[in-house]
Specification:
The chain has 147 residues and is mainly β. The chain has 1 helix and 9 strands, in the order H-E-E-E-E-E-E-E-E-E.
Length: 147
């Protein structure tokens, strides 16, 4: 009997430690990574973000802000539509956001330094779903953009 109680307690701890991912109506945005972290001229930077949403209606707008630490002229705010893709309830997916350091990459918005020196900056991201719910703002690590 004593061993049965110990086994029940151990199993209880195991199951209480395993949490199911919870989904809410407000999209949950998580910053995962940026590559590269030092952006050479004409290179493309790719940010990977993860999003979860109970309704799966995240197909609306992504807001991106570049905050320069040493070149205020390089700051910008970008807003664009998220492309339509198949969604489901309790959606969990990754989003890729890309920019270019220069104009030699057609189709990409440039994040090049607008000063005569390298730009040290970070990026902030926020997502709005079709119902108007806004995620928390997430922030990248520091990125160096070479002139």
């Amino acid at each position: 009997m004593r061993y049965t109680i110990i086994i029940i307690i151990i199993v209880g701890f195991i199951f209480s430690g395993c949490k199911k991912e919870t989904f809410s109506s407000t999209p949950k945005l998580t910053y995962k990574s940026a590559t590269p972290k030092q952006l050479l001229p004409d290179e493309i930077i790719k940010f990977t973000l993860s999003v979860t949403d109970a309704e799966g209606d995240v197909i609306d707008t992504m807001f991106v802000q570049k905050v320069s630490l040493n070149c205020a002229a390089s700051n910008f705010f970008d807003r664009y539509r998220i492309p339509i893709f198949p969604t489901t309830k309790n959606l969990s997916t990754d989003i890729l956001v890309s920019y270019s350091n220069g104009i030699n990459n057609p189709g990409y918005i440039t994040v090049a330094s607008r000063c005569n020196y390298n730009d040290t900056c970070y990026f902030r991201f926020m997502l709005k779903d079709r119902a108007g719910n806004k995620s928390d703002t997430v922030k990248s690590e520091t990125i160096v953009i070479y002139k």
